[in-house]
Write a sequence for this structure.
């Protein structure tokens, strides 16, 4: 392959990687916010599926992809509130409730979404937002400025989340309720109400993640179309040490890894890549990574060192220590 | 005993007046018809044993609990606090025994936490300036830009006080503030508190340390079993002995009678011991320690100086990073916990409810936890339950354990009785060396007396005892030799005769003794 070929390959991989990483990015940021507030929500996969299905269905019915996106955010947030009530108010086990949310979301989206599968009628899609003045810049142009609008939104939301977490009063309170809820309570911060709110925020992000899949990145609805990306998001939060910027880099990296097997099929002159089984192994990588991160990350001492919120996974009861 | 009305009424106006406060928890009456008066410009000590209801009463004042009945007047006005937020808004600040600080945030961020200003954006530099000014004004020195996890316990306490002052606290409640401080830090804190009340604020000092409250407080209120037994008596009108009697309800022997020690060979020794803590950092460094038969060696130090890691490493519950542990002259560094037990090591862990006993098992089973493998309890591969019950009955009588029967679940026992069960188990194994970590923490005066007598009895029988305690008085009254730890290192060794709180306090802060 010549230089021009490599250039096309790399730019194509980066552009597609960033696009494919966007749903993971939203889901990861949402889970990160939820966990920063001290609540573990393993229902990301289920919430994403409900978001993807709702988004596509509403867009299909109304002809407006934007309405679809809104509906997706609302539906996933509603599902996350089930989790919030179970674990924050009723103090159920967070792992069990989260898994239940994933099962519930997977099942609900499959049943309700069944008529939408193979609906060939082109449902509305979210528009692309290429900026003509900038997309001509070599490499950077096509990767950053010739993308779907959700991808651009993803670029913008990362600094916003970072700024919110580290520079605002509300972000300070968010970190406090996740680290030491009793301390936050003792200075008059409403731990329960804020935790519920941030679980819902996580749901909104998961809904966006789902809708950006079904309305932009891989348009259409297929049962189980998230294919484990919700779990990758859960793993990425740990991998990123609960930091939004690292989470974003990780999400885009995963987008690229997911895209790699496809792109490599077009590179015939590398003997190693001719093995047809290689694609399967590359496809496996994100899941392998997620499993490793989740196993390693479940070690208490390791999590402390990574900077896990100290109150993560623990219910808060005033007066109990 | 003097009645509340026997004392002259103070002249200052009332800051807080709590009347007929009742608070019940499932199975306990924590506060039974309690009246409490706090004046402006005074330090008022609230005394009582663990479980007397002092913290509950103050938690009601701070809005953490709602009283079942009764009223609170603040500067004459009837108030009702539904949450800590209400109490803070009315100028009541509470410094809890377990600090309410977010360790991943800076000092300034912790102070700003929950404040209505700034409304949206947090400008770190501005808050840091404010906190700096506040800390200078009140003599509570602390670096506003430091993260809380970097601070010593004493500094964290100053942050807590600053937090309350920043919220405009007129009434400051401190729950057992001296439990974790060195004597010098205690003195500095009392000085700062005196300056605060001189400006017209009021301070409530919850404590069970008699000497300290007599030194620091203007007036004292004593609680026992949820009731007030002495109300607002001037500190200079009473003595340590009278206070102890009021607190416990019977005369208490405050000073232990101790025979001179006759130490023998070393039974427990460490050389250059290094142990890692939970975060992977070295918590014990280069520690040389020797406990001989028939002596009590006390380990003093502020909380978190490596005492827990040391006791766990000695018991075989935590791996040794480098250096050696010797038991009875043999290298035991790599021994398992069971091998150490068989070699005659007894262990009274710091957390008696979690590590010391199995709450769901009966007293008899807990007593058998170390002895079940050998006769007479072991019968082939079975356990002789009748024998177990019989032994348990003997121990219950011998150690005066208050329990309905030998099969009572250990988790339902009070702290003092549970500790007696654990000591009964460790002592009947016939140890050569005993590691006792915080053996009287949270126990009432009566149970503390019993534990102290048991430890001294053990010493007189020729057992080497390593006593790890944050209670300096306990260390001073029991130990034959005292080793002071600071940040995992031994900063000094003192004989009982040479030891005094000031010298130990300096070493707790890191100053090495001349002969170390």
């Amino acid at each position: 392959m010549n230089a021009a070929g490599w250039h096309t390959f790399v730019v194509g991989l980066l552009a597609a990687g960033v696009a494919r990483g966007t749903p993971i990015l939203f889901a990861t940021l949402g889970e990160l916010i939820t966990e920063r507030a001290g609540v573990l929500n393993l229902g990301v996969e289920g919430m994403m599926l409900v978001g993807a299905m709702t988004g596509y269905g509403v867009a299909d019915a109304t002809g407006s992809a934007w309405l679809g996106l809104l509906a997706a955010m609302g539906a996933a947030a509603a599902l996350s509130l089930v989790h919030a009530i179970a674990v924050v108010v009723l103090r159920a086990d967070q792992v069990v409730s989260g898994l239940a949310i994933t099962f519930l979301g997977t099942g609900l989206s499959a049943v309700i979404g069944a008529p939408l599968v193979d609906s060939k009628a082109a449902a509305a899609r979210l528009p692309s937002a290429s900026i003509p003045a900038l997309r001509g810049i070599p490499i950077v142009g096509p990767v950053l400025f010739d993308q779907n609008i959700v991808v651009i939104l993803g670029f913008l939301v990362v600094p916003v989340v970072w700024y919110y977490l580290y520079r605002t009063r509300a972000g300070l309170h968010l970190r406090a309720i996740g680290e030491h809820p009793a301390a936050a309570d003792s200075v008059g911060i409403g731990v329960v109400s804020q935790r519920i709110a941030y679980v819902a925020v996580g749901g909104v992000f998961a809904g966006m993640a789902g809708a950006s899949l079904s309305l932009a990145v891989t348009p259409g609805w297929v049962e189980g179309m998230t294919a484990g990306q919700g779990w990758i998001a859960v793993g990425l939060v740990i991998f990123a040490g609960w930091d939004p910027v690292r989470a974003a880099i990780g999400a885009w990296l995963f987008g690229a890894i997911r895209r790699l097997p496809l792109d490599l099929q077009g590179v015939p002159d590398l003997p190693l890549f001719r093995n047809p089984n290689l694609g399967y192994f590359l496809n496996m990588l994100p899941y392998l990574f997620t499993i490793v991160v989740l196993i390693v990350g479940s070690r208490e001492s390791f999590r402390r060192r990574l900077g896990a919120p100290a109150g993560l996974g623990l219910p808060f009861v005033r007066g109990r220590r | 005993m003097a009645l509340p009305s026997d004392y002259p009424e103070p002249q200052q106006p009332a800051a807080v007046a709590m009347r007929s406060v009742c608070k019940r928890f499932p199975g306990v009456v924590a506060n039974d018809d309690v009246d409490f008066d706090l004046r402006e410009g005074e330090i008022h000590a609230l005394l009582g044993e663990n479980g007397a209801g002092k913290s509950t009463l103050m938690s009601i004042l701070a809005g953490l609990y709602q009283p079942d009945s009764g009223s609170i007047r603040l500067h004459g006005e009837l108030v009702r606090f539904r949450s800590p937020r209400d109490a803070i808004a009315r100028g009541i600040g509470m410094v809890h025994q377990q600090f309410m600080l977010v360790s991943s945030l800076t000092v300034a961020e912790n102070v700003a936490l929950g404040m209505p200003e700034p409304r949206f954006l947090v400008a770190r530099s501005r808050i840091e300036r404010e906190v700096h000014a506040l800390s200078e004004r009140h003599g509570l020195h602390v670096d506003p830009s430091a993260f809380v996890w970097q601070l010593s316990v004493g500094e964290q306490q100053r942050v807590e006080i600053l937090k309350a002052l920043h919220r405009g606290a007129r009434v400051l409640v401190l729950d057992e503030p001296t439990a974790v401080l060195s004597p010098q830090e205690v003195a500095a804190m009392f000085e700062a508190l005196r300056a605060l009340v001189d400006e017209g604020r009021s301070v409530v000092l919850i404590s069970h340390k008699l000497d300290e409250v007599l030194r620091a407080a203007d007036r004292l209120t004593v609680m026992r079993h949820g009731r007030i037994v002495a109300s607002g008596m001037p500190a200079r009108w009473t003595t340590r002995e009278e206070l102890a009697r009021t607190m416990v309800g019977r005369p208490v022997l405050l000073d232990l009678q101790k025979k001179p020690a006759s130490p023998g060979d070393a039974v427990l020794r460490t050389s250059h011991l290094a142990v890692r803590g939970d975060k992977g950092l070295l918590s014990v460094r280069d520690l040389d320690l020797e406990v001989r038969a028939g002596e009590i060696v006390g380990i003093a130090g502020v909380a978190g100086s490596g005492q827990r890691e040391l006791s766990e490493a000695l018991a075989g519950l935590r791996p040794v990073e480098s250096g050696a542990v010797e038991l009875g002259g043999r290298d035991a560094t790599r021994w398992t916990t069971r091998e150490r037990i068989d070699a005659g090591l007894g262990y009274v862990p710091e957390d008696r409810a979690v590590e010391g006993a199995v709450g769901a098992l009966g007293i008899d089973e807990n007593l058998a936890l170390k002895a079940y493998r050998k006769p007479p309890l072991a019968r082939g591969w079975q356990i002789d339950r009748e024998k177990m019950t019989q032994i348990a009955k003997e121990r219950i009588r011998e150690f005066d354990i208050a329990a309905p029967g030998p099969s009572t679940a250990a988790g339902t026992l009070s702290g003092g009785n549970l500790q007696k069960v654990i000591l009964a188990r460790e002592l009947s194994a016939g140890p050569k060396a005993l590691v006792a970590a915080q053996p009287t923490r949270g126990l009432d005066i009566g149970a503390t007396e019993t534990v102290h007598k048991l430890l001294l009895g053990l010493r007189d029988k020729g057992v080497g005892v390593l006593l790890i305690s944050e209670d300096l008085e306990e260390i001073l009254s029991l130990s034959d030799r005292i080793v002071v730890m600071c940040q995992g290192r031994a900063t000094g060794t003192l004989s009982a005769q040479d030891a005094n709180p000031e010298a130990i306090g300096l070493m707790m802060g890191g100053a090495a003794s001349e002969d170390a």
